[in-house]
Amino acid sequence: MGGGIAELQKKKPEELEASDRDRMKEIAVKLASARKFVEQNTAHPSVQVYKDVVISLSRELAKAEGQSSGSRSGSDAGSDSGEAPQQAPDHLNLDVGPDERRHYREDLKKMGTWAGEAEAESLADHLRVRAQVYVIVAGVFHRVNQVGANHTPVGELALVHLGNHYEVVDGVADGMEVGRQRRWLKTSKTGDCLFESMLLIRHNGKPLDEDKKQRAILKLRQRTADNLSDDAIDETIHEMLVYGDTAGTGEHTSKLVEERRGDAASKREADKEKRSRDDENERRVARVDAKFLQDRLDTLQTLEGLSAFGFDKAIAAYLKERGQDPKSKQTLAELRKLNDLFREADFAFKAQKKRAAYEYQPFEKEEEESWTGELDRPEDAEEQLALERKARERTLNRRDIKKTASPNNANQTLIVLRGEEGEFVLDKLGQLVPRYSRRNISQANLDELNGKHGEEKGMYPSRMSPVEDADISQVASGTGGNKIRKESDEMHHVQGHKPSDYLSVTAQNEDAVNPKGKKFDAAATVEVDLSYIDPANLSALYTSQGMRYFLLDGMLAGDKGETIDLAIREQSKVPPDKSHEKDERKAGGKKKKDKKDKDKAKPSSNQLALDHDQLSAKEWQALLDVIRTKEVLIEDMIPHDAVRKL
Question: How many of the other CB atoms lie within 10 Å of CB of 448?
Answer without folding.
Answer: 27
